[in-house]
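Good morning,

Attaching, inline, the C-alpha coordinates for the sequence recovery test we're adding to the shared suite. The designed sequence is right after.
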Protein backbone atom coordinates (compact mmCIF):
# COMPACT_ATOMS: atom_id res chain seq x y z
CA UNK A 1 0.00 0.00 0.00
CA UNK A 2 1.03 3.59 -0.67
CA UNK A 3 0.27 6.66 1.41
CA UNK A 4 0.53 10.33 0.46
CA UNK A 5 0.80 12.83 3.28
CA UNK A 6 0.44 16.55 2.61
CA UNK A 7 1.59 19.33 4.87
CA UNK A 8 2.14 23.07 4.80
CA UNK A 9 -1.36 24.46 4.47
CA UNK A 10 -2.73 27.23 6.62
CA UNK A 11 -4.04 30.77 6.78
CA UNK A 12 -2.16 33.50 4.94
CA UNK A 13 -2.86 37.09 3.97
CA UNK A 14 -3.30 38.11 0.34
CA UNK A 15 0.09 38.51 -1.27
CA UNK A 16 1.67 36.01 1.08
CA UNK A 17 3.35 32.68 0.44
CA UNK A 18 2.99 29.07 1.48
CA UNK A 19 4.89 25.91 0.61
CA UNK A 20 3.04 22.62 0.45
CA UNK A 21 4.77 19.25 0.70
CA UNK A 22 3.55 15.80 -0.34
CA UNK A 23 5.49 12.79 0.87
CA UNK A 24 4.80 9.35 -0.55
CA UNK A 25 5.62 6.23 1.43
CA UNK A 26 4.96 2.52 1.29
CA UNK A 27 5.66 -0.18 -1.23
CA UNK A 28 6.97 2.08 -4.01
CA UNK A 29 8.96 0.99 -7.04
CA UNK A 30 8.75 4.31 -8.86
CA UNK A 31 6.61 7.42 -9.08
CA UNK A 32 5.65 8.89 -12.42
CA UNK A 33 3.67 12.12 -12.52
CA UNK A 34 2.93 13.94 -9.28
CA UNK A 35 0.39 16.69 -9.17
CA UNK A 36 -1.42 19.18 -7.00
CA UNK A 37 -5.16 19.68 -7.32
CA UNK A 38 -7.50 21.94 -5.42
CA UNK A 39 -11.17 22.05 -4.64
CA UNK A 40 -12.97 25.15 -3.42
CA UNK A 41 -16.43 24.95 -1.80
CA UNK A 42 -19.10 24.32 -4.41
CA UNK A 43 -16.57 23.82 -7.19
CA UNK A 44 -15.06 20.85 -8.96
CA UNK A 45 -11.58 19.64 -8.19
CA UNK A 46 -9.11 21.19 -10.63
CA UNK A 47 -5.51 20.60 -11.58
CA UNK A 48 -3.16 23.24 -10.23
CA UNK A 49 0.22 21.90 -11.33
CA UNK A 50 1.88 18.64 -12.30
CA UNK A 51 5.44 17.40 -12.70
CA UNK A 52 6.78 14.30 -14.41
CA UNK A 53 9.59 12.14 -13.10
CA UNK A 54 11.86 13.95 -15.52
CA UNK A 55 10.69 17.32 -14.10
CA UNK A 56 8.57 18.50 -16.99
CA UNK A 57 5.87 20.73 -15.58
CA UNK A 58 2.50 22.16 -16.46
CA UNK A 59 0.35 24.69 -14.65
CA UNK A 60 -3.20 25.97 -14.61
CA UNK A 61 -3.37 29.38 -16.26
CA UNK A 62 -4.63 30.90 -13.02
CA UNK A 63 -1.40 30.09 -11.15
CA UNK A 64 1.26 30.52 -13.84
CA UNK A 65 4.00 32.83 -12.67
CA UNK A 66 2.93 32.55 -9.03
CA UNK A 67 3.18 28.84 -8.18
CA UNK A 68 6.12 26.50 -8.69
CA UNK A 69 5.97 22.73 -8.49
CA UNK A 70 9.08 20.68 -7.81
CA UNK A 71 10.00 17.21 -6.60
CA UNK A 72 12.77 15.27 -4.93
CA UNK A 73 12.76 11.78 -6.42
CA UNK A 74 15.13 10.45 -3.76
CA UNK A 75 12.63 11.45 -1.08
CA UNK A 76 9.47 10.58 -3.06
CA UNK A 77 8.29 14.10 -2.26
CA UNK A 78 6.66 16.86 -4.27
CA UNK A 79 6.42 20.51 -3.34
CA UNK A 80 4.22 23.42 -4.33
CA UNK A 81 5.63 26.87 -3.67
CA UNK A 82 2.77 29.35 -3.75
CA UNK A 83 3.58 33.06 -3.94
CA UNK A 84 1.43 36.16 -4.39
CA UNK A 85 -1.54 34.28 -3.01
CA UNK A 86 -5.02 35.57 -3.73
CA UNK A 87 -8.33 34.96 -1.95
CA UNK A 88 -9.46 32.91 -4.95
CA UNK A 89 -6.64 30.44 -4.19
CA UNK A 90 -8.53 29.41 -1.07
CA UNK A 91 -9.30 25.69 -1.33
CA UNK A 92 -8.41 22.26 -0.07
CA UNK A 93 -5.25 21.21 -1.89
CA UNK A 94 -4.76 17.55 -2.72
CA UNK A 95 -1.65 15.71 -3.82
CA UNK A 96 -1.88 13.02 -6.47
CA UNK A 97 0.77 10.56 -7.56
CA UNK A 98 0.94 7.87 -10.23
CA UNK A 99 2.79 5.15 -8.35
CA UNK A 100 4.14 1.84 -9.56
CA UNK A 101 4.29 -0.50 -6.60
CA UNK A 102 6.95 -3.09 -5.92
CA UNK A 103 4.41 -5.81 -6.71
CA UNK A 104 1.54 -3.73 -8.09
CA UNK A 105 0.88 -2.01 -11.42
CA UNK A 106 0.79 1.78 -11.67
CA UNK A 107 -2.12 3.28 -9.75
CA UNK A 108 -3.32 6.74 -8.86
CA UNK A 109 -3.13 7.72 -5.20
CA UNK A 110 -4.50 10.77 -3.38
CA UNK A 111 -3.52 12.50 -0.19
CA UNK A 112 -6.01 13.53 2.47
CA UNK A 113 -5.88 17.21 1.52
CA UNK A 114 -4.62 20.31 3.25
CA UNK A 115 -6.58 23.53 3.68
CA UNK A 116 -5.22 26.77 2.26
CA UNK A 117 -7.06 29.93 3.23
CA UNK A 118 -6.10 33.32 1.84
CA UNK A 119 -7.77 36.09 3.78
CA UNK A 120 -7.03 39.37 5.50
Amino acid sequence: QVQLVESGGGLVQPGGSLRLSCAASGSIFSINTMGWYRQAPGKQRELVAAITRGSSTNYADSVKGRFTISRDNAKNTAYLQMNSLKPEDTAVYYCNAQVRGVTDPTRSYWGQGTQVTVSS
